[in-house]
Amino acid sequence: MSVRTLPLLFLNLGGEMLYVLDQRLRAQNIPGDKARKVLNDIISTMFNRKFMEELFKPQDLYSKKALRTVYDRLAHASIMRLNQASMDKLYDLMTMAFKYQVLLCPRPKDVLLVTFNHLDSIKGFIQDSPTILHQVDETSRQLTEIYGNLSAGEFQMIRQTLLTFFQDLHIRVSTFLKDKVQNSNGRFVLPVSGPVPWGTEVPGVIRLFNDKGEEVKKTEFKHGGNYVAAQKEGSFELYGDRVLKLGTNMYSVNRPVETHMSTTSKNLASRTQENIAPNPLAKEELNFLARLMGGMEIKKMSGPEPGFRLNLFTTDEEEEHAALSRPEELSYEVINIQATQDQQRNEELARIMGEFEITEQPEITEQSTSKGDDLLAMMDRL
Amino acid sequence: MYRRERSILLRGSAAALSNNLSVLQLPDRDLRHFGVVHGPSAQILSSAPEGVPLAQRQLQVKVGVGVSPPLITQVHWCVFPFRVLLVLTSHQRIQMYESDGSLMVYWHALDSGDSSSGTWSGRILVFDIPAKGPNIVLSEELAGHQTPITDIATERAQGQDGVADMVTADDSGVLCVWRSGTTFTLLTRIPGFGVPCPSVQLWQGIVAAGYGNGQVRLYDATTGTLHVQISAHARTICALDLAPEVGKLLSAAEDTFVHIWKLNRNPESGSIEVEHYHGECISDTQLCGARFCDPSGSSFAVTGYDLAEILRFSSV
Predict the structure, then answer these.
(1) CB-based contact B217:B228 (threshold 8 Å)
(2) How many angstroms separate the CA atoms of A47 and A64, rounded?
(3) Minimum distance, in Å, between the CA of residue A234 and any CA atom of chain B
(4) For the segment B182-210, what is each residue's pLDDT rounded down to a tens digit?
(5) What is the interface pTM, i.e. ipTM, of the complex?
(6) pTM score of the predicted model
(7) Which of A219, A222, A289, B135 has its CA 20 to 30 A from that of B44?
């Protein structure tokens, strides 16, 4: 598995998150200045230099549970709040969208173009903030530096690592179903027509060579697909025509996005097994979270700016219903923290988490007295 | 020419790896074993020819307490004249079992020095396998590749008893052809051209290689000369397999297609010829493994990423 996968995973999922939030902020008629502030705050937290440094270190991918914690933090980097059900739905949309993009990438290397598409759109959200724009450009440069010269083999490994991360995820997304890019069983449609990847020939030709390497015969065979030659290669520069549409914003105000919570019984078997087994990754994941979130600089919520709650569903009742009816195997489970073990790391995490004050905590019912308990309670809710 | 047969259901979906289906044919017992990697576990199951599953088993790489099992990279049967071993690999360990996976007979820890930076050395490890028992010994390490090895294929050397030819492929598309002896000697090296070679086969001195840009190329194993170039698929090839009795080659790719080719050596010119025999589209499935289920190629099976079944086809 590739140890260069995390930055690509994080940036693309982050990009999808911003697309969804932007759409919901407009759909919910949040005032323009508030909406802009939310996106600016989240983007500037995402592209914070210290955080990016941690992100770009060669490392394994962690579980969906651990990564979800980071996005939860990110989504709350501003005056906006999300209930559990909305956060779940947001994460579902993010992961299914990027899974789709990875699967449909013509070449493994094209995942870099998808990343640039997300970054290009992110820059569109923060046009008025030169400081944050600069941060995003810096990250683009870092991406080009690190990934610009990776071999096709290394990109194929990155692709396989990403697909492993998304294995067995078949949540149906209404936009995908309507656009016929996803089947009703949750599988994505893999077209057998259109342009071939850049560097691949249109299938259907057999070339024969003699001992001297000269082509002596050329025959054709019926491939079965309906492919055409690729027109143009997408640009990997800081600015340029990416050609590929994957990773551009597919949401608009008038398309409410629903997800359908159903899995087949086959998937059930493998997922419940995963959830029932004790989580031995917790220790490594806590390390990862401590490092990553230690680099995240969340602004303190000083000042009179009032917060607001964003709802990913059309009504509050729908959100409540979604929370109650989410299938067991699709819950983004608790990271099983052994409070007695590794006091030191828990304290470290507690210190980091302490810097992120959540002023409104409607979901916590129990009154906790110590920082450690706050941390555990927060982690337990995720 | 082939029709779809009843699928074999898997406990877990197949992982997005190349060559992610292994088949052990046991014609005298009217049985087949199938092996598929799911992720941290591999599933081994046996079935009767009609596809009725008879027994199944899940294997994992053994690790210490409190550590989660690593991802398995390959599960494969190695057939020797005197025994069959099931080999399970992960980035840090190789485990070998009796053919039904019931008993581990040997394990070998791989040099994990630079596993954190994700580079694997491209070394080929050669083990001496005794006719019985666990006294398996690492006898040689071959250097010939600089990037991770993707696939290995072998066949008995033509006209020579007890000698085998072997071809190894890597992530940069380089192929090495070796001959066994007291030690292995490198016969020829075929350069890559910028894409990985995930899968390779060897038949009657012909190297068949499947590449990341969807091409299948056939080379002469002794000279390394390119004889045939097929623009076979629109996405990377994930698996190749051979039916040695008839010279049929199976190619499967991430473009959802499976193709069967008929290989032939022209007796006059000695040049390699190929013709397309059959094509099959497995809708919306990024294939990851494909194997013939019998030596005459009258049946084959495929696996796909995210798919929890083995799809089977047999000729009509």
Answers:
(1) yes
(2) 21
(3) 17
(4) 888 999 999 999 999 999 999 999 999 99
(5) 0.92
(6) 0.88
(7) B135
